[in-house]
């Protein structure tokens, strides 16, 4: 468990970069920190893993203040992934890189070798490859693997998907999701609200060194005040749902669909209720799903397209009521 109690922080001892930040991340949680550049997200991550100490308040890891924990103790409890994997990678081969953490903790030996072998197989790495010759996505996966091979109960990821293409992003986040399902606590900073919507269960939004929202992912991502204050856009499908929901008569399930599968199910259900053949309903719903998931970044064109499709369906439906 990680607790921030009225934490303030500064890099130069004068200018407060964090102000009175309080939150608790429980074991097994999956939290995303969102907000504009300079909001204090990376600073919060540095405080959580003990790299930075608060100027006021307390940061507690499993009930112990970070000021009272040794670096090695913190390293065992928390794995930290830097935004840039090249800040993390320092060895000549993939195998050495994955053994590095064990060496640093003085835990080399057959058990460590076994864990490294297992992770090489799981990720499909070439053990003898030179890390710096790997592509960006694979280097990011290697940096992530070098942390999770140590099996820390908590991982902190500072923008783990920035600079990755869609497939690489999904690969990294699927590993993270699997870890979380296995009980690992995940705290991540993320600028991509599609990724946040797909993976995080809770969102903490920051602006100007303060927390402006802390709640269930879609409660935060649907809150107009928070979106404005933290300068974020909701995921595309959530935005479509919010736009459609403003229309009087928009079916409740569509107005509250947070994800593409929820939207597809809501539309299919609505069209069936309105007497359309099930196959036609499913085909239309799939078209909407395709339009929505074609892009990971919100695009006005897809919103218009989805709205037009729903508009057609809605017009028919209203005629039948
Ligand atoms: N090493 C540092 N020394 C001095 N000031 C810093 C340092 N790192 C960050 N800051 C300042 O602290 C504030 C918060 O920065 P931080 O990196 O925590 O923001 P962030 O939310 O992670 O932003 P981004 O989305 O750009 O990564 C900013 O005003 C930044 O300029
Ligand atoms: Mg940052």
Automatic annotation (TrEMBL):
Keywords: ATP-binding, Nucleotide-binding, Transport. PROSITE patterns: ABC_TRANSPORTER_2 (PS50893). The keyword Glycoprotein does not apply. One of its GO terms (molecular function) is ATP binding. Residues 2-233 form the ABC transporter domain. Belongs to the ABC transporter superfamily. This is ABC transporter domain-containing protein.
